[in-house]
Amino acid sequence: MITRRQASAEIVAGAAMAAVPMVAMAQEAKSVTLPTPRNDGGQPLLRALKLRRSTREYSDRPLPPQTLSDLLWAAFGINRPSGDRTAPYWRHVMVIDIYVAMADGVWTYETKAHTLLPYMAGDIRADTGLQDFVGTAPLNLVYVAHGERMTDISPEERRLFASVDTGFIGQNVYLFCASEGLATVFRGAVDYPKLARILKLPDQQFVTFAQTVGYPGA
Ligand SMILES: Cc1cc2nc3c(=O)[nH]c(=O)nc-3n(C[C@H](O)[C@H](O)[C@H](O)COP(=O)(O)O)c2cc1C
User: Fold this and answer.
1) Which of 154, 140, 155, 151 is nearest to 195 (CA)?
2) How far is the CA of 186 from the centre of ligand 1 (A)?
3) Separation CA 192–CA 11 (nearest Å)
4) Which distant-in-sequence residues (6+ apart) come within 8 Å of 156 by Cβ?
5) Model confidence over 46-103: pLDDT tens digits?
6) Are 39 and 61 in contact (CB under 8 A)?
7) Whole-number Å distance between alpha carbons of 19 and 108
8) Phi/psi at 54 (nearest 5 deg)?
9) Ligand 1 pocket member 33 (CB < 6 A)
10) CB-ligand 1 contact for 146 (6 Å cutoff)
11) Largest CA distance in the chain
12) Of all protein residues, whose CA lies closest to atom 15 belonging to ligand 1?
């Protein structure tokens, strides 16, 4: 009998193939190995909880590579030899991919190697939401659900569980940002059909939410 973990491993193996960038990025774009994440330190949890808030004014200052690395690890990085993550997820099936929209293009976060894979060229930040600051903040996380990995459940349940998975990741991002003095806001105000079209998502994949991250604006 196949265990849930084995089933998930197979799905993840398939997922690695499916995560191959679908839209050719400029020839020169290569995957970026992020610095080793700093998985110790920061503010005590209760202090981070006290500081957690949504922010809607951003400076255009980019995040240093170490901060980006730490952010992505905190969001949904691997925190155990089993390959499991900093956030809980539905039925041990890896449903959510994090797309990172920055001025230099869109990247996907590959957790195992802790790298950014080039996904598409071009600055689509302004298309990740309906609020002005999304176009100028240094990065927007776009949470993409692989509906095709959520078998035996209804479309409504897919939305529900993918949204819950995303919410946990979003809160990790909130707490990391609170700890680091960064600004963030989790966002549902997104033109979903347009963003899916721009990202050329296959039928069964869908954006759940987006989240802006940066330094607080003046
Ligand atoms: C599911 C969800 C969707 C949200 N969508 C947006 C959004 O599109 N734009 C926005 O500015 N804030 C959005 N927010 C942030 C909330 O407005 C914010 O968390 C709430 O006003 C409480 O403020 P606080 O986070 O500072 O405590 C969203 C929050 C959640 C949980």
Assistant:
1) 140
2) 6
3) 26
4) none
5) 999 999 999 999 999 999 999 999 999 999 999 999 999 999 999 999 999 999 999 9
6) no
7) 8
8) -95, 140
9) no
10) no
11) 58
12) 186
